[in-house]
Each structure stands twice: as C-alpha cells, then as structure tokens.
Amino acid sequence: MAVARSLSWFAQLSWPALRHQAGRQLLALLAIVLGVALGFAVHLLNSTALAEFGSAAASLQGKPDLVLRGDTAESVPEALYFKVAADPGVALASPIVEGQALAQDAQGKPFSLRLIGWDLLQGAALNPALLPQAAGSSLLAGLDPAQLSLNPAAQQKLAGPASQLRLRAASAGSGQAQSQLFQIGPGNAAAGTPLAVLDVAAAQALLGKLGRLDRVDIRLAAGLQAKQWLAGQALPPGFGAAPPPDEGQRLSQISQAYRVNLGVLSLMALFTGSLLVFAVMSLSVAQRLPQWALLGVLGMTAAERARLLLLEAALLGALGSLLGLALGWGLAQAALHWLGANLGLGQLSAGLALQPLPWGAALVFGGLGLLLSLASAVLPALTLRRMPVAQVLKGLGADSGLQLPAWLGPVLLLAGLGLALLPPLPPGWPGAELPLAAYAGMLCLLLGGIACVPQLLRACLGLLRLWPGAHRQALIVLVDERARDQAGEASRALAGVLVSLALSVAMLVMVGSFRDSLNLWLTQMLPADLYLRSSLRVSSAGGVDGLSAPLPPAFLRAVQASGLAQRIAPQRSDEVWMQGQRYALLARAVDEAQLPLAEPLSAASHRQDLTPIYISEALRDALRLKPGDTSELRLRAAAPPLKVLVRGVWRDYARQSGAVLMPLAAYQAWTQDERVTELQLWLAPGQSSDAANRALRALAVQGDDVEIAASEDLRALSMKIFDRSFAVTVWLQGVTLAIGLFGIAASQSAQVLARRREFGLLLHLGFSRAGVLRLLTLEAALLCGVGCLAGLGLGLGLSAVLIWVVNPQSFHWSMDMSLPWPRLLALLLAVFAAGVLAALLAGRRAAGFAAVQSVKEDW
C-alpha cells in the first residue's frame, strides 16, 4: 500500500515538478549512465581478454593429467620419454617440441610463427584442437614430416590458398639459421597467435633439438591418481611432473594491477556522477521547499516526504543503470572491434568477440549505480524530514542542521596521508600486490578536500575583506554575507567538480610524469644511432617466446670490417637463475653515469670475489634486495653459482618480471661464451640510417634474418605504444571532467534560479540589472576560484600518491614528478570559465523577471 501510494504521489506531484527541471535531471541521469557504462565496459574488456587468452592456452595445452618437463634442465631427453611412455600407469605420453620460426606473409613480409611439434597418434586425444580439421582428410597425413598444419591466425597471414611455406629457424644449440620448405596441409582449430603444427621429428630437425623434447604430456591409466603415480616414480634430478599450469590464472595475476587500476579509474566517473546527483537532489529540494511544506500542511508526513524523494532517486538510478549497462555493452563491442583488449600487455589483438552477457557483473554494476543514486539522496531526504513546515511557508527558509564539523576535513586529509604512507601488505596475503591502503588514502583525501571547502571559502573571504573600502562596497558585503551563511551549500555544489578536477589534475600529472620519465629512460638506454639483432629466436627455458638468436660470427666480422660504424657496442641477452627464480639478463658495457638509476649506487667497496650487477626495481621488490647486498647467479638452476654484489637498482620500463644488468666482460668471463645477440652502432659521420640499414642487411645471409631500427624510430614507436596504452585512461579522465563541468553548470544555474526573490528585492532596493549580474559574477568567480584552487591542490596530492605509492606498489617502477603547467592552467581556466558563464547565463534569466513579480513570490 505504501509503495502504491508513493508511486501515485510520484506521478501526480514529483513528475510535473521534475519536468520543470528537465535539464538538471537529464544531466544527473547522464552522469549515472556514463559512470555505469564505463565501469561495465572496462569489466567486459578485461573478462573477455582473460577468457580469450585462457581459451587459447587451453587449446594448446590440451587436457593431460600431468606435464613432464625440466625443472632445472632445459629439455627432456628422449630416453626419459621412452621410459615414461613404457610405464604401465601411463595410458598416453605425447612428446612436445616448441619453438619459433620466420615465415613470409602474402605481401612477402616476415612474420613470427609459433611451432608445436607432436606425435599425432599419441597427442590426438590430449590436444584435439591441434588435429587437422579438413573434412575427409586422413589423420595419417599429419604424420608426414614434410607437412604442417596452420591455425586460423596463420592462415589469415597468408591471405589465400597456398600449398607451400618456407620456415626459417635458429638452431637451439648454435643459433645457426636453417630453412626448410613444408607442404601446407589441412588447418587446425587452435586459437591465439599464428601457429604451425608439425611432426615432432621435423620440429626437432628444424629447431636443432634432435634427441630432446620441451615437455611430455601424460594421461594416466583409468583410476590412477596423479599423486599415486608420482609417489612411485623416481625421476632424475632436474625433472618434475605436475598438472598443467593455468595460463589464464597466470595472466590474471600478471595483469591484475593494470586491470584494478583501470577499474578504479572507471568507477571514479561513477563516484563523480553520484556527487552530481547529490547536488541536483539538494538543489531540487531547496527549490521546491514551499511545495514540500505545503504538502506537509496538507497531511503528508515527514517520513512520506523522505520516501517520495528516495523514490525519485531510485527511479533515476534504475533508469540510469539500465541505460548505462546497454551503453557499456556497446562501448565494449566498439573497443574490441577497433582497439582490442590486451590488458596492457599486448597479448591479444583487435577483432575479438564479447563473451555472453555476465548477468552477475551486470547486477553488480547496475546495483552500484542504483545504490549510489540512493546514497546521494539520503542527506536531502533527511533535510525534508527535519524541515520546519511553518517556517518555510512564511518564507524564512529551512536549516538542514547537517553542517559538517570544521575538524572533519583536516582529519580526513591527515588520515589519507597516513594511509598512503603505509607499507604494502606482506607477500602471500590477499591483495598483497595491490596498493589497497593507498586507494583508501586517496578516497579519504577526496572526502577531506570536499569537507574543507567551507573553511577555504571563508579564508578567501577574509582576504577579500582586506580590499580597501570593502566594508563600504555593497557588492562585497553581499558576497561576504552569503558566502559565510551558505558555505555548506557551496561545498555541496562544488563536490562533483572538485572531485573531477582533482582526479583530472592527478591523472594529467601522473601520465605526464610517466611519459617524461619514459622519454628520458629511452634516451639513456638507447644512446646509439642504430640497433641490430637477429630476427630468429632460440628456445628459452622461460617460455616459448624465446630469446634472440646469437648473431653469426661471420656477420659480426663483416660488420666490423664494413666501416659503416665508427663505434660498435655488443650486447648479450640471456636468462639467469637468482634465488630459485628465472630472470632476464642483459650483458653490455655499463656506464654508471648513463644508467637510469632508481636509487643511489652502493657505497660498498669493490671486492675481487664479487661481480657487480644492477637489478631492476621489479627484481628488487620480488627478492627484497637492496644496493650493497650479495647474492648468486646461475645459468641453470643446478649450475655452479657466480657470487655477485648488487651495485645498484635501475629503472626498467620494458620488462615487468625483473631483469639483471651486468658488464659484458664479466658475463663472458663467467660463461666462456663470447656470442652476442644485439649490436649498438654509432654511425660514421655523414652516414644516413637508411643507407646503413640497407648495407647491413646486405651483409647478412638473408636480409630478413636481422632486425634493424634507428634510435629515433624506437623512441617514436615506444611513445606511440605508450600513448595508445593510456588512451583509455585519458578518455576516462575526460569523461570524469565532463561530468564535473556539467555538475558545476547545473549547480550554479539552479542556485541562481532559486534566488529570484532575492534578486527582486535587490532590484526594489535600487540595484540595477547590471549590478545583479556583477554580484553573480563576483560570487561565481569566488566560488569557482576556490574550487579550482582546492582541486589543484588536491589533485597534486593525489598525483603524488599515484607516482610515489600506487605505481611502485602496482607495477614496480618509479618515475620523477613533472608538472605540465600549460595543460594544468588550461584545465583550471576551462573549469573556472564554465562555472562563471553558467552563473551569468542563469543570472540573465533570473534578473529578467519583473521586480514586482519576484517580490510577490516572497510571502
């Protein structure tokens, strides 16, 4: 009955009143729609990317019970495979060889092709996605060592029917390149990047892995548990069998920080929108106070008035959430089509399809929009409950009695600072990789900034009173009295724009600082004119992506003798073990003065028995090392160690999992391996990059065997990737700011229109229409100026938390803060101008009423 009565009252009382506020209500609705849409779209993109990657990994892994691979060894010898395959507890044992090769697409351009060599008869039941899919084709055709099967991504590269494909790969042992021509057989259904499936023997020959395997997929006999079988095995040292890893879960962990940060940013738009809804609801209540009071006299109770207002908010939130979910689905579809969803890691490409609608997530985001809309109406509803009906009907206004205490703002700011300074959670705890305390601190800073607006406004008024003759100027006196009396109302009106401006400033400073730091890092790490490496890859113990193949000695001698470069600096890329974990290694000549150091070098004196190394920030955080500590490196997990001294910590924006940098001479003395994988070349005077590129390719056995890039091209490509990665962030920032600008425009215009009686009285007392507009301009300038100052200060504080806390804890890299003052000033000017212009436009309308009519409204 109460619900039916409320709905009836809404149709008869609220709807006509809301129609007169259609502009503000539509802005509030738009804020909810955009907030829900952005959050839901980001969630859809993330979940689609994870599901697609997990599906692709599952199609390649198959469904074995166990996977046998080398824990500390690089490969599985065939003798061990035969022993396992002959075990009575093993139903199937599928040998797998993995690697990479180069092929040419339909335009003759080289592309990387992942290779999987397998025994079709053993692996068909374990990896059905790798089977040839053509109707009527014989499975025996897959046993032909001269034939390969391409997945859809590889077939798309060829862009049409082709009968043959030449593959070029590097030998796993020597790195020597070799080519082989294969017949193209029926394709397979494996998902993911371009892939070719071929016979295991052919893969071993092409990749230089004769007698060796990368892994063995095992299916146990029916009824036999993995633990039982493992308990009865005595595998050689360095080998182990375990259930196949969950690659989707691994990617989820790697990309967690990126996804959470993007999700938090998208929800900030919804949070800002809720503040706009709060401002609209508060102003709507203030503008309709006489009507609410009259309803109270006619018998509507205080609780019924509050319920009616909450119903208005609920309907607004429900409609906004439904429209937001639909818009979010459309945005995700468009983003997948045009941009792809790569989780910030580059795993996936454009053109993916959304997963079926996740009803659970839709309910969460829809409910969040509804909940925030209701929460935004709680304080206005309390105002209605406490409204003195008789006083309002006499035109004396109403005191909400909800003024915040003066100490609340500073306390929240201090709490936010304290939370931001808390150390991260210990490893192994839930959420240990996320800066949860920093997020809570940022929320406290935002709320504290809003709570401090009245005090800041009064402080600015104190400065205004210092103006010569201020107490004798009517405009300043009126502004002073209203600002002191309505400071709480100003805080509510400024809440949305303050939050959006602070977030925009924070993101602008953070992204700009990151971009400047990356640009400086590229300059320090890429000092040469040209960079050269092999296009071929050799298998790495850390994964199928592989390492750059060593450059052929004959090619190196030819480059040295060519005279193309006045200086050549070689580099070796490899992998090392450190404290039981595998990390990337860069061995090159080290100039400490040019290193992008994250903290001062170790002051420890050099010891002859310790080799100096430089670790990245990610490795420092993972192993809890610091400059001056000692540790050990191993080429393989069971190899003899090299004792090292952590000389310094350097910034590495290229490798998220950690890396070690050491002098090339020390690496060669340790490994007795003088092969190099990259060259840095400083060209001779007058030598152009394009001419040197052509000349260097002519020295190679095949021009496509080497990748050559100029330093400026690498920097431009890196900055392009950076801008593309942060395009979504910039877009979310723009939407949040737009919501805030809509909010200040709606708030200012609503406040001005609600003061028509006041303006009418001023006109009767001798004020001119131009004088009223000057009063509004001064008030709006004061209010918007305070909002801009507060937003700038709060935004700089939030940016400091992002730069010095959130990024180091989330991504394990640091950066230097740099302030893009031109863009910041343009942002502040836009917000200031929007608020003042909105007040002036509304003031022209409000001051245009006849003075008599305006005063008649005052009882």
From TrEMBL:
Transmembrane segments: 26-45, 260-283, 313-339, 359-384, 404-424, 436-457, 493-514, 730-754, 775-804, 824-843
Top-level division of the source organism's lineage: Bacteria
Pfam families the record matches: FtsX, MacB_PCD
Alphabetized UniProt keyword annotations: Cell membrane, Membrane, Transmembrane, Transmembrane helix
Principal subcellular localization: membrane
Membrane topology, from the record: Multi-pass membrane protein
Stretches assigned to the ABC3 transporter permease C-terminal domain: 264-388, 735-847
The keyword Disulfide bond appears for this protein: no
Signal peptide stretch: none
Stated name of the protein: Putative ABC transport system permease protein
Native source organism of the sequence: Roseateles oligotrophus
